[in-house]
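Exercise 7. Given the encoded structure of a 100-residue chain, write a plausible sequence.
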């Protein structure tokens, strides 16, 4: 537990340094028709460090909280089903990482 909570606080510390400038439109789209038949255990729900992907409890559909995206590209690579359409946010929008 000690090691895990130490790691989590480190990640939270790092996320605290991230500044967001949200666009109105999502730069991530998922194809729900593919997600409905996901064969890779809905890995998007677990692999994203910013927890951008959530599953709606009632409908079971994938929700995308694109505002929290860190633009790492992991989900796009991990979803081998090809359900994720990920583009860079429009110029001037997205994340800015503060250093120091
Ligand atoms: S986005 Fe990819 S990994 Fe996530 S549920 Fe859809 S098909 Fe599965
Ligand atoms: S690009 Fe990275 S932070 Fe953004 S949704 Fe995908 S896994 Fe999450």
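Solution.
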């Amino acid at each position: 537990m000690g090691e895990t909570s130490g790691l989590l606080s480190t990640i939270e510390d790092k996320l605290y340094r991230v500044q967001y400038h949200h666009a109105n439109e999502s730069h991530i789209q998922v194809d729900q028709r593919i997600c409905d038949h996901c064969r890779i255990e809905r890995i998007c729900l677990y692999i994203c460090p910013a927890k951008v992907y959530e599953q709606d409890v009632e409908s079971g559909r994938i929700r995308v909280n694109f505002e929290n995206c860190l633009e790492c590209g992991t989900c796009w690579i991990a979803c081998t089903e090809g359900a994720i359409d990920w583009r860079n946010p429009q110029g001037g929008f997205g994340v800015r990482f503060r250093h120091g």
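Remark. Strands lie at 18-21, 28-30, 53-55, 62-64, 84-86, 94-97. Students should compare their own answers with the one above.
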